[in-house]
Structures are given as structure tokens and as C-alpha cells.
Amino acid sequence: MADKKKDTATKKASKKDATPKATLPPSGFKVAVREILRSKSALTALIIIILILLFTFGGSLFLNRAQITEMNIVDAYYGWGQGGHLLGTDDGGRDILKLLIMGGRNSIMIGISVTVITEIVGLVVGLVSGYYGGVVDVIIMRIVDFIQILPQMPIIIVLTTVIPNYNAVTLVFLIAMFGWTTTARYYRSFILSQRDRDYVLASKTSGSSNLQIMFREVLPNITSMIIIDVVLTIAGNIGIETSLSFLGYGLPTTTPSLGTLIGFADDPVNVINRPWLWLPATILLLVISLSINYVGRALQRAGDARQREN
How many Cβ atoms sit within 10 Å of the Cβ of residue 224? Predict the structure, then answer.
């Protein structure tokens, strides 16, 4: 009898061990890494982005910012590799390689700064609008609609000409003044789909406040969407700054930018005979935009996979 009881207990224990244990779905970060490693184009793009950041931000640490913009007419219009200048010089004798490093750094910094502001403002507005709905949503969305129909570029151009002591910080806030509306509408659409979920209703039943539900319950569930939007928005904001600088209404003339370098292409003589003035900046901008786009697409796939696994 004792042996039979031992055998029965052993069988029950083996059955318990054989039952599959519930596993939690992988975190959003792990899913993103998996998608990037799975895609050769996304992995290559990520490596390129890292190299560009090292080239611009790391390279700027070894440059004297005051000397970069110093003009030396004697060295004007040196071509590729002439006079010890790898990428030549511009009409003021300034080294194109140094201008490219500082210009890329400034353009990327402005793109990131604008993105931080627009994401914070847009996320808060989108959360409030989507969560409360009703009259609150209608009022906020009408304000968003009004701002979005305004001509962004002409208004920024006018403001840059009338604002005293105009600088890079001013440009960041001018671009962010319009950029948050698209972000707010983007997040609102996701919050609308989340506010009637079971976990939200359960939190309301348990007595949690609206702020706690929005920022502790709803917000973590759209983290993957936030990452995707941040990555893609950075590329868009770099493009806006570059466009304004190309037109002459972006960064001050004393501050290097990819847009000011590309602006040399407005002269047909430079386009044909002096490609070193504008071509490196153009290639760098295209590489940045394409690389961010490929990484963003991989993150989007990771976000979709994360939602399916949940």
C-alpha cells in the first residue's frame, strides 16, 4: 500500500511538472530589438545612425567653434582635398568638413529638441482629449484644427524676421508651436481605443483617480506607439529646420546648419562647378532621413507584434 501511494504521488508530481507554465509576453524593448535584428536594412540603418551621431556630436568636441565660422578669403573655393581641406572650402574660406560636422550636430539637436517639446505637449493633450472625450474632446480638437489650418512656414518666416535676438532656442519653440498638434491627434486616436478596455474600467471601479488611470494605466500601454512617433518625428523636424535654413529663415547665418550648406545649391554655378559646397550636406541629410525611416518601420512592426502578443 505504501508503495502504491508513493507511485501515485510521483505520478501527480510529474503531471504538475508537465503542465506548461504561463509565460509573460516579451517586453516592448525586447520585441523592438528582435525586429531590428531580424531586418538587415533596419540593423544597417541603426548602425549608420550611430556612426552619424559619433561623427557629428563626437567630432564637434574636437573643434573650436569660434574658428569654424572665421572667414579667410585667401582660401575661398578650394576644391576636394585642396589646401589641406578634405571637402574643400566655401566662399569665405571656411572648411566644409568642419561646417558639415557642426551643421549636422545643430540640425540633429534642433530636431531632437523640437521633438521633446512636441511629444510632451502632444502626449498630454492627446491623453486628456481621448480619455475624457465628449465636450472636452470637441473643444480641444477644434483648437487643434484651427492651429493646423494655419500656414506654418509663412508664419515662422515672418516671426523670425520680427523677433529680436533671434537664435536657435527661438527657432525650436517656433517649430514646436505648430508641431504638437499632429502629435496630439495621433495619440488621441490610440487613447480612444484604450479608454473602454477592461483594465481601465477595473481601475475606475477600484477607485483610482483619472490622472492615475491616464498616466499609470493607459500610458504604459501605448509606449511602443510613443517610441515609433518619436523616431519618425525627429526626422520630420530635422527636415523642417533644414528647409527654413535653406530659405534663409532658419538658424542665424553665424550658426552652421545642413540647410545653409545645401543653400549653396541655389546658385547654378555652384551646382555645376562647386559640388563640394552642397553635395556632402545633401547626402548626409538623405542618409539621416532614410536611416531613421527604416528604423521607424522596424519599430512599427515591433509595436504591431507587441499588440498581437498582448
Answer: 21
